[in-house]
Amino acid sequence: MLSTNSTSFLLNKPPTSLCIQSDIKTCKTIKDLVQFHALTIKNGRIQDPIVAAEILRFSALSARGNLEYARLVFNQMKMPNCFSYNTIIRAYSESKNESLEALIIYDQMLYDEFVEPNRFTYPSVLKACVKIKGIEEGKQVHGQIVKCGVELDSDDFVVSNLVRMYAVCGVMDDARRLFENYVVGDGELVSEGNVVLWNVLIDGYVRIAEFESARKLFDIMPQRSVVSWNGMIAGYAQNGFFKEAIEIFREMQMRNECLNYVTLVSVLPAISRLGALELGKWVHVYAERNDIKLDDVLGSALIDMYSKCGSIEKALQLFETLPYKNVVTWNAIIGGLAMHGRAKDALDFFSSMKQSGVKPSDVSYIAVLTACSHAGLVDEGRYYFEQMVRIVGLKPRIEHYGCMVDLFSRAGLLEEAEKLILRMPTKPDDVIWKALLSACRVHGHIEMGQRAAKHLIKLAPHDSGCYVALSNMYASLGNWVSVAETRLKMKELNIKKVPGCSWIEIDGTINEFVVEDDSHPRAHEINLMLEEMANKLRMAGYKPDTTHVLLNVDEEDKESALNHHSEKIAIAFGLISTGPKTQLQIVKNLRICGDCHASVKLISKIYDRRIIVRDRSRFHHFENGFCSCMDYW
DNA sequence: ATTTCCTATT
Hints:
The protein is built from 32 helices and eight strands. By secondary structure, the protein is mainly alpha-helical.
């Protein structure tokens, strides 16, 4: 750009005057502060404890501060006052990895006969204990608080940090006891408007995934802040309770509760996972209309939402508009492209990322390897794996091995996949064996399939996945005796197959269907549509591929079973609920089966609809009889 | 003069 030159010229001009800061309030940068500091040393004002404390505070806590400088200032104080101790302790407790230093200075403070820790000291000291995960240190500090004799243990800030310390360390019994002693006096609930204390305890239950206790407290708490709502949403979302997260979010809107930036960032992953595009769009519009800052963090969450909800183009558009992109933003778009099977674009973005100076993380490589695996780019996958290990020096995680096993297995390089599993340094998990097993089924390699299944059963004896995959493999070979044996074994061990489940969002409502589902209010119309679809498919010359049906029953029954796979029901519902040519978007919990894949291709042509299906591992864009995955999946 | 809770990517 032409204008860049003139701008940088202006920026590079040296400052015309060196104005010495004479008041700390006018200091903007650490340089200003150093000048001011020098001045106070020269004129002796540094001896004034208040001036010294202010200098310390600026260097330790202001946004442009510098902890090293603060430490030097602190070390030069002959008699640091309580305020100075508190300031430096707080700065260290909030530091990235020097929190232990906060405890060391606190210890120093205890030995200093001229100062006593006060109610401003302990929140930071406790925060430092949490940071270093020091429950023993925390208990000691708790004792010191109780013993100090000035009733610090009835200060809101001290108590909520104590409860937080126990809660974050997972000692919920102690956290609860403290909370009850403080909040409930004489068996009566005392409401002091102390929402934070409630939030902290709820957060503790959420952390150990005790959602019943968390929800109970949330429901009865006398007052809720936006943080209470956000905590529940984030907790549900991070633990896989996506519907619950969205329900709470909806309830917030219904009650006209104030939403903020954190609310949106917390609910978006849940929206992404469910593929609720309409709701996701609403969040985007809400942020724009309410001046919620669309920065790299919220931007990354939105990019992930658009790509997981099928709108990879919208994700790309948004990506271009973000002025600042961090490594997560790049990972989101590269992972999105990979999911949509756009391997070349994913690799191009990966190189732009490096070019723009953002260092790839291990997650970036997961995205890149996923892209290779979905497109069958075996050599490229090998190349990037080697690059990651040998050049970038990242230690491969089990997920990276998973991608490589997947890459080899799908490409039919089963021996190489198995070799890698046997020589990888970490113990292969069930995901890895499952990747190999399902490839063995596709490529009809029964001996290796049985070997993989054996490992799988050992690793996850009560997971239905391996039995289903095994029985699938036998079924596709027509070995019904072995299918029956496998099924019997499942029955004996009381292992239930995870039911196939698909959902489709219509007018902002998520409609969920399981196999052979007829519980929907419009079930009758849906069934009529399913019949019509089957007829039209047959007229188009389609022959159902019944090897995907596990039962040894009549061909006719098998066909009927196929027709009632959850994704077909969802599509039928989509067809009757939307106008002609409207694009349909389906999300499925498992991988789409071969028969559904083949028939949805035709359905997209017969009904002239774009149909986007997100299955467990990737996106399929069906249009005019073809699928974007080019049948490689 | 100071202090607490909730934040994205596979």
